[in-house]
Amino acid sequence: MRHKSTAAAALLLVASLAWPAVSFALNLRLSQIDASRLLLSQRVRLYVSVTDDLGRPVEDLRAEDFRVFESPDGERFTRIPRLEQFRPSAGIAEGVSFLLVLDNSGSMYDTLAGNPTEDPQAMRMTHARDAVRSFLSSMTDPKDTVGLVSYNTYYRLHAAPSKDRALVSAALEGITRPSREEAYTELYHSLSRAVREFEGLAGRKAIVILSDGENYPYSEHSGRPHPELGERVVEHTEPIRACQEEGITVYAVNFGAVKDPNLESIAVETGGTVFDARDRRELESVYRAIHEQVAGEYLLAYRATMAPAVRKFVRVVVQPAGAAAGPELSATRFYFSSTVFGLPLTSLSLLLLIPLLAAAAALWLLTALRLERRKGPAALEVLHTRVGRASTRVLPLGTAKTVIGGGRSADLTIAGAPGVKEQHATVVYDKSKKAYTVVSSGEVLVNNQPVKTRVLEPGDVIDVGGATIVFDDGEV
């Protein structure tokens, strides 16, 4: 489904004047399938979008207007006898986690017509920033969370999903004009990376990606290996698969004359849709429409069928009665089964003992090995580096301050990583509190969250410019 904002505005005016006399066709999308509770409760949650021709959510549908079917092969469908939960406007009731992904390639600093300019007010990026600020100000539901990412040659997280709209608004200023080396467009790679930002978040999850052109991989068009990906070129199927596995919807916004040929496929196959916008006003309208559609979805929960399968297909059929009566509509998608052998269980059985006993044995073994370890010094262990190379794999923390950076004077040097400063971060030991704290001068992630300072705990994962480092306190 593609929305044309200018036409929509005119239709909206007509509809508002003559609503009772106008008959609208309905659109149905199975936006998200949440199978995270399948293993323990056999429950599957569906987020279903029903909109009119103007993209507005259709309200007042009843549970009786929906029918749900499930199939192990996409051909033989079994009707679900009853819904365990039915909730209109689920996004309003439960909140939504949004991740705003903005194109920060070189062309975003041209005019809307695609001409070079040095006037910031004429740049496409300025229009995008203003539209995002408008979107943030319209988010009044305290249960909603929102994060911010930009992408070009590199993927950059500016604000992890949180309820702090002001933090995201301030982070917009961190999106700066790219250098020539940064001005490429790793669209598919960035979408795949964006999925990780939802780790630990449940419920309704949506990526809203703005693009003013096509995927333009660095290694293909520069003639050199990508600093992080090397020669690998990410295909558009990778973000589709990642979003389908994690239950995340992609809403795509075309904000330029050139459109990526696969972006619509990514959106549709993840349960989303594509919008076009030509200026700030239309872009604001698009962001508002996406928020309204997601907030106005219906939640349907049911118990999964017994048929074993790696993938389960779900079909939702809706046929409204009363004033919204019309033809029957259906939408079909699949989810990846995450239960034992792909078989949901109606009750506890001996099958559950297999993974439970395996987990218990693994826990015993890890505990035994840990108890045999002698107490040693705290240390930083480098697991891998996506960019550059580390001067050592394990660095004991034997001094009050340990510097991580790109310079030779650093205690742990990450060489060949352009994003790492000479003294990028410092791990400081507080003798009175017997605690280690990481203090950063550059961008540092701890457990995938951006930090400036943080007290470290055993097992914390630190990301410095693409180097993944684990903190070990050395205790038994």
Largest sheet: 10 strands, mixed
Query: What best-fitting shape do the alpha-carbon axes yield?
Result: globular
Tally of domains: 2
Under CATH, the topology of the largest domain is which? Rossmann fold
CATH arch. level architecture of the largest domain: 3-Layer(aba) Sandwich
Distance between the termini: 58 Å
Structural notes for this entry:
The radius of gyration is 25 Å and the shape is globular. It has 11 helices and 25 strands. The chain has 2 domains: 14-336, von Willebrand factor, type A domain (Rossmann fold), CATH 3.40.50.410; 379-472, Tumour Suppressor Smad4 (Sandwich), CATH 2.60.200.20. Residues 1-23 and 339-348 have low confidence and may be disordered. Helix 4 runs antiparallel to helix 5 (165-171). The chain is α+β, with helices and mostly antiparallel strands. A hairpin with a 3-residue loop joins strand 8 (145-151) and strand 9. The strands form 4 sheets. Strands 16, 17, 18, 19, 20, 21, 22, 23, 24 and 25 form a 10-stranded mixed beta sheet that branches.
Summarize this structure as a short list of keywords or feature phrases:
single chain; alpha+beta; Rossmann fold; Tumour Suppressor Smad4; disordered N terminus
